[in-house]
Amino acid sequence: MDIEIIERDIEKIESVVSCKIVLDENDIINEIHIVSNNLRGAKQIARDIQSVLLATHNIQVDHKKISIAQIADDSLKKSESRLKLLGVYHDTIGTRATVKVTLSNFENTYENSMSGVNTSRNIGRMLVDATLKTVEEALDYEDNFILEDIRTTPISNDKAVVVVVSCLIDEFERILCGSCLIKNNYEIAVVKATLDAVNRFITK
After folding, report:
1. Residue 196 and residue 173: Cα distance in Å, rounded?
2. Are the C-beta atoms of 198 and 145 separated by less than 8 Å?
3. Residue range 135-182, pLDDT digits in tens
4. In the chain, how long is the greatest CA-to-CA distance?
């Protein structure tokens, strides 16, 4: 195999600045070292590398062999990390309910769904959990956020949803809180309140 061609193909992947492949004594890929900017998550880049290798060169590589160093590149425009809500789906069959949340970061679309008992409180909790799971996937986090509480409270002549989320940062627990007026759609308000809480953290 032509390693230089493979390295050049990998360098065409978005956010990859340079690539160096190390072979073992049998000329099998043993290590892939990547330097990337900070515009995309390392997990996303690793998945793209695996896809390029398999689809273009018919080579399967374990993600553990891919090492990615991310550096700040001031010459590139800072990416928009704030997530936007594209849609909320809710379906009910008997005593079971399924919810789905779709988010976008202007470059990619992410969605997750959850199913459970069809009660109003459980639907709210599933919507929060689906939103948090989608945020973690979009930002390349892993089990970072946990729902602590969700409440509906009267405010002025309306009602609002308040969502409290905890997260672990550098071994310290932080509590995040977001809110949104319900208006005519409780489910959208739950998702927006969740995003209100975590967006304040992820954009800092």
Report:
1. 18
2. yes
3. 988 887 776 789 999 999 988 778 899 999 998 765 678 888 889 989
4. 73
Cα separation, 53 vs 198, in Å, equals: 35
CB 181 within 8 A of CB 159: yes
CA 95 to chain centre: 30
Q: Dihedral of the CA atoms 140, 68, 11, 81 (nearest 10)?
A: 30
Spatial distance between the Cα atoms of 187 and 127, rounded to a whole number of angstroms: 7
Partners of 116 in the β-ladder: 97
Q: Under DSSP, is residue 29 helix (H, G, I), strand (E, B) or coil?
A: strand
**Spatial distance between the Cα atoms of 99 and 113, rounded to a whole number of angstroms:** 5
**HSE-up of 47 (CA within 13 Å, CB side)?**
7
Region of 171 (left: φ > 0; alpha: ψ -120 to 50; beta: rest) is left
Single pTM value for the model: 0.59
Nearest-angstrom CA–CA distance, 112 and 132 = 9
In the numeric block, the tokens 């600045």 are attached to 17
How does DSSP classify residue 77? P
Residue 46 in contact with residue 63, Cβ under 8 Å? yes
Distance from C-alpha of 72 to C-alpha of 164, rounded to nearest angstrom: 32
